[in-house]
Amino acid sequence: MNPLPEILERLKAIFFRRRVERELDEELQYHVDRETEARERSGSADPRRDALMSLGGVEKWKDDVRDARGVLPLEECVADTRYALRALRRNAGFTLSVMAVLGIGIGAATAVFTVVNRVLLSSLPYPESDRLVAINQKSSSGSWTLSVVDLQAIAAQQRTLEAFGGMRWGSASVNGSGSAERVTIGRVTSGFFRALGIHAAQGRLLEAGDDAPGAPPAVVITSAFAERTFGGAAESVGRAVAIDGLSHLVVGVLDPGRHELAGVPAEVWPVLHLATPKRRGPFGYRAVARLRKGVTIEAAARDLDGISRRIFPLWAAGFQDASARLTPVPLRDTIVGRANRQVGLFAGAVALVLLLAIANVATLVVVRISAREQELSVRAALGAGRRRLVQLILIECLTLTALSGAAGLALAALALKGVRLVAPDLPRLSELALDPAAAAFVAAAALVAGLLISLAPVSSVLRHGRARTSTLASSSARVGSGPRTHRIRGALVVAEFALALPLLIGAGLLLNSFLRLQSVDPGFDPRGLYAVEISLPPARYPDPPATLAFWRRVEQRAVATNGLTAAGLSGSMAPDNFGDVNNFDLLDKPVPAGTTQPASPWPSVTTGYFAAMGIPRLEGRSFTDADSGDAPPVVVVSRSWAARYYPHQSPVGKRLVSGGCTTCPPTTVVGVVGDVRYRGLAGEADAVYSPIAQGGDTSGYLVVRSRLGAAATLQALRSIVASLDPNIAPVEVVMTDRLRQALGDPRRWTAVVGAFAAAGALLAALGIFGLMSYVVRQRRRELGVRIALGAQPGSLIGLVVGGGMRYAVLGTAIGLGISVFESRWLGSSLYGVRAGDPATVAGAVAALMAIAAIACWVPGFRAGRIRPADVLRAE
To answer: Burial level of 112, CB count in 10 A (0-12/13-18/19+)?
Structure first.
């Protein structure tokens, strides 16, 4: 049976009431006339009066018709909604308070729902995205990226992939309009775009011949880059773009809005030409593939496992980890995996705040219903039954939460902007926007909140039935007040404290961790320390001699510049080094054959780098001009490296094999220097340094110690680089800013959870303050009598504070149990402090108890100032 006509008929009765009433009057007149005619034929003395009497009265008949059509209940709901809106408007302070408290909770929850829905749950913006996988190397020691050997082996031997592409992400100096700029780039093979299944907005994407050896360089650019550089997408195709000095032909432009591909943000996507590899490493390439139709990820894993087994013996001399396997992982998991912990922490905090807001609003509603006892008693005396009273309360609560939901939806838009500030590295950030799903979530949250906050008053009405009318004064005990209502309010306050404590503990743990992380010695003094990142164009610096000559010239220019007290070069920069990591094997302590070798940060530096950074030499020697590319390889190690691999003995003179190359001459440790943290401030401080003449690359950092200010120093560094090669666009680094950025995530998350904790503590304080204020009002006569009989104000203050603290202590005890689950979220996000740190937990408990005591003291102070004469006059 189709219910749509009936629903439309009822809606018509609500929104077109006058027309329906007119139709009812016409129908009634028809039936009255027919009944009158029948009475006339039967000889009635007053046929019309008898006809009306037989119909039971006009208004009752109309009500019966409305009820039969299902219109009367809807009319009652509309009338109750109008009444609720008028009542809420008359109590604007109460209404605005609820909208603020609950609106913030619903808005924050909606923002989190949007993040979870868009980032973690929704499909990737590619056709049949469930068939997309990323391919990593995995072994017992962890997971890492691929090498050229892996990419070429997969492309040649795989049988389960419909398309496959490799990619290397980084930055480059790009010149398309006459001036060079530093932009993010993603060098990709032609199969990368085919695997994703995307198309070009203008031109074409890379094709199979573009990445063939000797093919002319081609590039695909984003729509935003095309607009900024060439004035539009159509004008870009066929133009030339110099990437690190090498000219590339623009063959296509991506669709507008595509700011990242496969989770990697980049503005320029040049072709990746793979050179013939000489060893299994280095690693650093990513791979994306599309499974053939009907192929499972397990079948692809077996296929790639066979490739791993076949290529291992061919390159075992330079890569000894026999357990390493090429492993497919759903691309979606690879992109959003790192966001699970961030979103989980945020969602947990928001959920607690939302529950706190609902509990607080429920307390306010109980107070409001208590103040309306007389009205509800009158309604009951006039014949309102339980259903009618329940409907009235329920509609008012739902109206209140609907208004809060509307406010929450507006606040959610602001909260999403806050998410971009709090988590700027969140994957798929550009996809965050309010949508119909978010609106549906707001509606559901408002509905659930309305039902929850109406539970206490509704259960009171259902418990007592129709209010007794013998005395309206006594009905208050039945509907809104009394011991049971007091217990309900007390339970809500206990819940507020139980929810507030985990927030305070979480904020305390994060703050403790942040302060410890902030006090970590990075290994250098950032004051007066500056750097520029330089990437040399391979076209003009095609071999190591040309590269080394540039590095020497740029260092000499920096040393000779007035105001710069020291200068040096390094392939990577602390504290967050995501490259220049190398594996090695100690000749006197080799790892078992076929197992994973240890690895450490391995920057190539000049001796001037140690002086510029202020890294002390502790043992042995530093690098000299004699450590050239033709000389035996040497390294300098950090103190932590020496303590780990050679405890209680000197590492100087020890030899190792670097990069897994068993056919290369061994490398000798010639010195030990102080620790610098290249694995992040929370990471280990082990490091190995090689002379730039023996391990230099085409990119690196010029680091200087300066007596000049930041602006003058960076201008001097730009001038030095421009004087040697005007086509290089250096990236400027202020070390104090770099350290601040390294602390960015801990600082942001500490601030966010701290703000939620403050909100939770405030809500709990307001809840217990309202409860004890209500208690003082209810017991005003008793307290006045106590004072008249000689009670001191201090004893009354203690009575009120003690009563309130019982609720706080009970809620805190429950909150301690809830906080145990926090360790699952916070354990790996903390540094130098355990999730159950006793000092932090005790501090949070003490802070919450102090807040509760202050909130209880205020109504207690008022109780102590009650004058018995005023109480008697009121009686």
So the answer is: buried
The SS3 call for residue 585 is strand
Residue in this structure with the two tokens 């928001």, named with its chain if needed = 350
Contacts of 135 (CB under 8 A, 6+ apart): 146, 150, 154, 287, 288, 289, 304, 326, 327, 328, 329
d(CA 735, CA 712): 15
Please state, in angstroms and rounded to a whole number, the distance separating the CA atoms of residues 359 and 670: 66
pTM listed for this prediction = 0.75
Sign of CA dihedral 333, 336, 341, 343: negative
In whole angstroms, give the CA distance from residue 86 to residue 565.
Answer: 75
Tokens of 507: 């904020």
Q: Please compute the mean of the pLDDT values over residues 518-527 and round it to a whole number.
A: 89
Q: C-alpha angle with apex 515: 513 to 516, nearest 5 degrees?
A: 65
Q: Which two tokens stand for residue 337?
A: 């995996």
Residue whose tokens read 């499909």: 123
Query: What would the 3-class secondary structure string for 116-159 be?
Result: HHHHHHCCCCCCCHHHEEEEEEEECCEEECEEHHHHHHHHHHCC
pLDDT digits (tens, 9 = 90+) for 714-741: 999 999 998 998 878 788 888 988 888 8
Question: Which has the closest alpha carbon to 129: 204, 205, 198?
Answer: 198
507 neighbors 756 (Cβ within 8 angstroms) = yes
The residues facing 167 across adjacent strands are: 188, 286
Q: Between the CA atoms of 8, 10, 12 and 14, what dihedral angle is there, to the nearest 10 degrees?
A: -140
- Judged by phi (left if over 0) then psi (alpha if -120 to 50, else beta), residue 57 lies in left
Please provide residue 812's backbone torsions phi and psi, each rounded to the nearest 5 degrees: -65, -40
DSSP letter assigned to residue 466 = S
DSSP H or E run through 172: strand 161-175
With beta carbons less than 8 A apart as the criterion, state whether 185 and 242 touch. no
What 3-state class would DSSP assign to 529? strand
Distances (CA, A) of 212 to 209, 242, 573: 5, 20, 34
Beta-bridge partner residues of 534:
700
Residue pair 352/760 in contact (Cβ under 8 Å)? The answer is yes
Q: What is the tens place of the pLDDT at every residue in 21-75?
A: 666 666 666 667 777 777 777 777 677 666 666 655 554 554 554 444 445 566 6
- Helices 483-518 and 455-464 sit at what angle, rounded to 10 degrees? 160
**CA atoms of 17 and 30, how far apart (whole Å):** 20
Q: What angle do CA 740, 742, 745 make, to 5 degrees?
A: 100
| Residues 535/728, Cβ–Cβ less than 8 Å | yes
SS3 state of residue 43: coil
Percent of the chain with pLDDT over 90: 27
The encoded tokens of residue 25 equal 């009057």
Query: Residue 504: which of 205, 803, 812 has the closest Cα?
Result: 812
**E-state strands within 649-803:** 655-658, 667-673, 688-691, 699-706, 731-734
Please give the backbone phi and psi of residue 165, each rounded to the nearest 5 degrees, phi first.
-145, 150
Q: Which of 576, 578, 564 is nearest to 611 (CA)?
A: 564
DSSP-assigned states of every residue in 206-233: --GGGGSTTPPPEEEE-HHHHHHHHSSS
Over residues 173-218, the pLDDT tens digits come to 888 877 778 888 999 999 999 999 999 999 999 998 898 888 999 9
Apex CA 454: angle with CA 448 and CA 456, to 5°? 125
The DSSP symbol for 316 reads T
For 492, residues 6+ apart whose C-beta sits below 8 A from its C-beta are: 359, 360, 362, 363, 366, 456, 767
- Specify the DSSP element, H or E, that contains 33: helix 17-41
Q: How many residues does the chain have?
A: 875
363 neighbors 636 (Cβ within 8 angstroms) = no
Q: Which two tokens stand for residue 865?
A: 């100032």
Helix/strand/coil percentages in the chain, nearest 5: 55, 15, 30
